[in-house]
């Protein structure tokens, strides 16, 4: 049973466009939803995170939208740049961020 | 750079050999987590340790895998009698505290290849 489902598996966006990655979760006990960015050969790095008492959080070009009733959250990357090309993972946890359930990842390619 | 340090970065083992992966957490961090990432998949939680204690090993395979975080020295993930299916990237992460909003920091991973 996959508790966090992520889509799409891969995404190609033109430079300057908006990249949107979606995640759905099942366990309503989750209370922390981070997004990680991973470049090839590197470890994941925290990009932005949200708690379910907030519907949206924005940091620079990155925005998380959260829909508690639908048990869904999404990452929006505005003005996508080639340097944003990476694999993005959503995750969810409760009580301990270190024990997170991850989605399977989305490989984003931003074309110049 | 006082980040999470993992070694070796790449390790090749023949079937039946043992693999030992080491992780030194960030300075001041006492909580260590190990994850496994299979090709084209997300990270799967394996084990959570504090100094000298295994707190949660619910993601560890029941056989051949063990982990420790001694009072002195790095955390070690040990895989005995490796099989081809163990080929994966193993990531260590660390944090200062255990709570849901805490930032965890990942190392750059150890890539295990079993031939």
SSE blueprint and pairings:
The complex is a heterodimer of chains A (112) and B (115).
Chain A: E1 4-7, E2 10-14, E3 19-25, E4 33-38, E5 45-50, E6 56-59, E7 62-67, E8 72-77, E9 86-92, E10 101-102, E11 106-111
Parallel strand pairs in A: 2-11
Antiparallel strand pairs in A: 1-3, 3-8, 4-5, 4-9, 6-7, 7-8, 9-10, 9-11
Chain B: E1 5-7, E2 10-13, E3 19-24, E4 31-37, E5 43-50, E6 53-56, E7 65-68, E8 75-79, E9 88-95, E10 105-106, E11 110-114
Please provide a written account of the structure.
The complex is a heterodimer of chains A (112) and B (115). Chain A is mainly beta and 112 residues long. Chain A is 0% helix and 53% strand. Chain A is globular, with a radius of gyration of 13 Å. By secondary structure, chain B is an all-beta fold. Chain B is built from no helices and 11 strands. In chain B, strands 2, 4, 5, 6, 9, 10 and 11 form a 7-stranded mixed β-sheet that branches. In chain B, strands 1-3-8-7 form a 4-stranded antiparallel β-sheet, with no helix packed on it.
Search tags:
heterodimer; A: 112 residues; mainly beta; six-stranded mixed sheet; five-stranded antiparallel sheet; 0% helix; 53% strand; B: 115 residues; seven-stranded mixed sheet; 49% strand; globular
Low-confidence stretches of chain B: none
| Gyration radius of chain B, in Å | 13 Å
- Supply the number of helical segments of chain B: 0
Mean pLDDT of chain B: 93
Q: Which consecutive residue ranges of chain A, at least 5 long each, have pLDDT under 50?
A: none
The N- to C-terminal Cα distance of chain A equals 38 Å
Structural class of the helix and strand makeup of chain B?
A: mainly beta
Q: How many H/I helical runs of chain A?
A: 0
- Oligomeric state of shown chains: heterodimer
**How are helices and strands ordered from N to C of chain B?**
EEEEEEEEEEE
Q: Tell me about the biggest sheet of chain A?
A: 6 strands, mixed
Q: What's the number of extended β-strand segments of chain A?
A: 11
Please report which band the strand proportion of chain A falls in: under 5%, 5-15%, 15-25%, 25-35%, 35-45% or over 45%.
over 45%
């Amino acid at each position: 049973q996959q508790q966090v489902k992520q889509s799409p598996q891969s995404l190609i966006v033109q430079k300057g466009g908006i990249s949107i990655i979606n995640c759905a979760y099942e366990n309503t006990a989750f209370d922390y939803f981070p997004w990680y960015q991973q470049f090839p050969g590197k470890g994941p790095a925290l990009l932005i995170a949200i708690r379910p008492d907030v519907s949206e959080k924005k940091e620079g070009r990155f925005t998380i939208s959260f829909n508690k009733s639908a048990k869904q959250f999404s990452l929006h990357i505005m003005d996508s740049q080639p340097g944003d090309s990476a694999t993005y993972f959503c995750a969810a946890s409760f009580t301990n961020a270190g024990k997170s359930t991850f989605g399977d990842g989305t490989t984003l390619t931003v074309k110049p | 750079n006082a980040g999470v340090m993992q070694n070796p970065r790449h390790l090749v083992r023949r079937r039946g050999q043992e693999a030992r992966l080491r992780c030194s957490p960030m300075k001041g961090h006492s909580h260590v987590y190990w994850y496994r990432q299979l090709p084209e998949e997300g990270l799967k939680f394996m084990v959570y340790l504090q100094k000298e204690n295994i707190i949660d090993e619910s993601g560890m395979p029941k056989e051949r895998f063990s982990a420790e975080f001694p009072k002195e020295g790095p955390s070690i993930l040990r895989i005995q009698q490796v099989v081809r299916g163990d080929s994966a990237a193993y990531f260590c992460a660390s944090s200062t505290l255990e709570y849901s909003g805490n930032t965890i920091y990942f190392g750059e991973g150890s890539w295990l290849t079993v031939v």
